[in-house]
Amino acid sequence: MRSATLLIIEDEERMRRLLELVLQQEGYDLLLAASGEEGIKLLSEHSELDLVLTDLQLGKLSGLDVLEETKKTRPDVPVLIVTGYGTVKSAVEAMRKGAYDYISKPVDHDELKILIARALELRRLAQDNQALRAGLREQFGFDRIVSRSPAMAEVKRLAADFAQTDATVLVTGESGTGKELLARAIHYASPRAARPLVAVNCAGIPESLIESELFGYEPGAFTDARKSKQGRFQLAHRGTLFLDEIGELGPAAQAKLLRVLEDRVVEPLGGTRSVRVDIRVICATNQDLPGLIKQGRFREDLYYRLHVCPLTIPPLRERPEDIPMLLDAFLGTLMHERGVRIHHVSPDALRLLTAHPWPGNVRELHNAVEWISLSCKEDTIRPDHLPPQLRAAAGSAQKERPSLLSLGLSVEEVEKAMLEEALDKAGGNVSEAGRILKITRNTLRYRMEKYGLK
Ligand SMILES: Nc1ncnc2c1ncn2[C@@H]1O[C@H](COP(=O)(O)OP(=O)(O)OP(=O)(O)O)[C@@H](O)[C@H]1O
Ligand SMILES: [Mg+2]
User: Fold this and answer.
1) Between residues 3 and 254, the one the model is more confident about
2) Is the CB of 366 under 6 A from ligand 1?
3) What is the distance in A from the centroid of ligand 1 to the CA of 231?
4) What domains can you pick out in the chain, each with its CATH number?
5) Alpha helices of 100-231 — where are they, by DSSP H?
6) Which of 118, 373, 412, 428 has the most CB atoms less than 10 A away?
7) What angle do CA 27, 32, 35 make, to 5 degrees?
8) Which residues does 207 contact at the CB level (< 8 Å), separation at least 6?
């Protein structure tokens, strides 16, 4: 680790030498200035600076000017003020303006060392925190959403715009299209990125618990409620609340959610108190909310509250040009994580991959890549390495579908043939044959009788 660099601004030469001596012993790199002007010049020239130690009373420019300049150009660098006798009032003023702390003359060396060490430690923590947040942004940012289709580019562009606002976002799309990924990217691109993202899976919490989970409760709200509990809304204060599978929310919770969105206050169960919350809401669903409204299962007024900034992620089959890029990205991850070395895909295999309808969307593709990573021992993916459902599609896509009518059979004959084949396959076991044919045992017995089968 590099040693910290301190800038010392002190016009009294004897004092400057003393500080230099004391702090050099501590192993710091030092820059020395005899005036405010000189100090500000060094400040602008040395980006590696970690801390400024300045006397309050200098010549023309004062320590306060140095402080102001540092706050303006290097807001992350702490400023420590050294005050003379009778200037404590100005020191308090300096603190108000953002100085880290002050120390009075005559300076106690140990106290000074401790103050500096603590200020540097705090700065290091702040930097770690920033790096961590940058890491999160990378882990959950828009760059993580792999795509090259114009449709996805448009979704990402809109989402990036929405991220800058506090407006409620509703993400829709089929299962596995990346709704959660997009919701997280919005949070981490938003001004709330440093605050929590609290995710609630509305489908994962039983109806009886959802209200206490979301809104919290006060002691005595119900038999077991001895202490109060914060709801997810309170936990998301100043951050983002991600309500996943919003279509699964029951009527009571829907009514309460509507009120919270309207008033931005939460009333914990069993309480009389309301709590103001500052939250940004992002919702997601793979259900057709207008359809649910028609069936009376989703409140129309709530829908309009949520439908402020709508984003719809198209299914993967509508953007096949994303498939090769996703494939590459998933293989790249597997190479990092498990040393999988697959670099190519044969034209036949690629044709199958892009022709598949991907009902499970990107999640299904991800699973397919996992399968391929186990079945493919060479560096090129061929049709044989693909999961069965893709290879099966190959058969029906390549061969013309045989015409059953051209066989000139009656429906009865076809049914009889199917029963015989299933019974044969099940070794005469009627229950098993029923399972193969997807009919009940009784139905099968009835039909066997009809066709005189044993
Ligand atoms: N464009 C993409 N780039 C990279 N990974 C993606 C992309 N879209 C989806 N994924 C990955 O696919 C998987 C499913 O994504 P996600 O959970 O966000 O989907 P979802 O729409 O929320 O699905 P569900 O409706 O089933 O909850 C995740 O592993 C996610 O990382
Ligand atoms: Mg999801």
Assistant:
1) 254
2) yes
3) 27
4) 5-132 (3.40.50.2300), 151-314 (3.40.50.300), 317-398 (1.10.8.60), 405-450 (1.10.10.60)
5) 109-140, 150-163, 179-189, 207-215
6) 373
7) 155
8) 250, 253
| Residue range 365-383: mean pLDDT, rounded | 93
| Alpha carbons 19 and 32: distance in angstroms, whole number | 10
Check pocket membership of 201 for ligand 1, CB cut-off 6 A.
Answer: no
pTM over 0.90: no
As a whole number, the mean pLDDT across the chain is 88
Tell me the range of 100-104, 204-208, 303-307 where mean pLDDT is highest: 303-307
Is residue 285 in contact with ligand 1, taking CB distance under 6 Å? no
- 179 CA to centre of ligand 1 in angstroms: 6
Q: Is the CB of 177 under 6 A from ligand 1?
A: yes
For the Cβ of 147 lying below 6 angstroms from any atom of ligand 1, the answer is yes
- Residue with more model confidence, 137 or 190: 190
Is a pLDDT exceeding 90 seen at residue 94? no
Alpha carbon nearest to ligand 1 atom 9, residue: 178
Task: Please give the Cα distance from 319 to 354 (Å, whole number).
Answer: 9
Amino acid identity, position 74: R
Which among 241, 224, 113 has a CA at the least distance from the CA of 186? 241
